[in-house]
Amino acid sequence: MLYLLDASAILNNPRFSFDERHSYACTLEILEELKSFETRTLAENALKRKLLRVYRPRHKYWKNAEKIVSQKGFTRMSKADISVLALAMQFKEEGKEFVVLTDDYSIQNFLTMLGIAFSPIIQGKIKQTIAFIKYCPACLREFHKSCAPRECPDCGIELKTKRVVEKSGKRVS
Ligand SMILES: [Zn+2]
């Protein structure tokens, strides 16, 4: 899985570690928030091992993220927070499969609004992922988000989005 990191994912979790089975992305602004020796070393090692890659969200997505943040009244967002949201919007539009790692409630609310999957981190471990799927409100057939049509092929009704909770890849609600 590709994980997009928010600073809180590392800063709030002294036991956070990069897992070689996955890949990680962050922005320059997030990297700059990792100021302690421990967190810097952790990130630098991951960069060297090519587990972590730094992206610059394109201008269009910065503008979009800033617009939604001010429209919806997410007032306490830092530049680093907005950079994560901009990159998440970019990844989504590029059709990437990814999950945002964040313990920040404002970011989680924003991602919920956009239907972007995220995981909080508890004691260094990912316990669950909040994902979003498309379903038909008539026949309840479900579609994978990345390949969902606009309408149900059986009923012709516009699909809706719903929030699901997954634990280690299995759905629990
Ligand atoms: Zn249907």
Would you write up a description of this structure?
There is one protein chain. By secondary structure, the protein is of the alpha/beta class. A 5-stranded parallel β-sheet has the order 3-2-1-4-5. Strands 9-8-10-11 form a 4-stranded antiparallel β-sheet, with no helix packed on it. The model has no long low-confidence stretch (mean pLDDT 91). It contains 6 helices and 11 strands. Helix content is 35%, strand content 24%. It has helices spanning 7-11, 28-33, 37-48, 59-71, 79-93, 105-114, and strands spanning 2-5, 23-27, 52-55, 98-101, 118-119, 121-122, 125-126, 129-135, 142-143, 160-167, 170-171. It has 2 domains: 2-127, Rossmann fold; 128-173. 28% of the residues are buried. The structure holds zinc ion. The site of zinc ion has 8 residues, from loops.
List the helices and strands and how they pair.
Layout: E1 2-5, H1 7-11, E2 23-27, H2 28-33, H3 37-48, E3 52-55, H4 59-71, H5 79-93, E4 98-101, H6 105-114, E5 118-119, E6 121-122, E7 125-126, E8 129-135, E9 142-143, E10 160-167, E11 170-171
Parallel strand pairs: 1-2, 1-4, 2-3, 4-5
Antiparallel strand pairs: 6-7, 8-9, 8-10, 10-11
Zinc ion is lined by residues 136, 138-139, 141, 152, 154-155, 157.
Provide the domain count: 2
CATH superfamily of the largest domain: 5'-nuclease
Q: Strand percentage, roughly?
A: 15-25%
Radius of gyration: 17 Å
Q: Provide the CATH top-level class of the largest domain.
A: Alpha Beta
Spatial order of the strands in the main sheet?
3-2-1-4-5
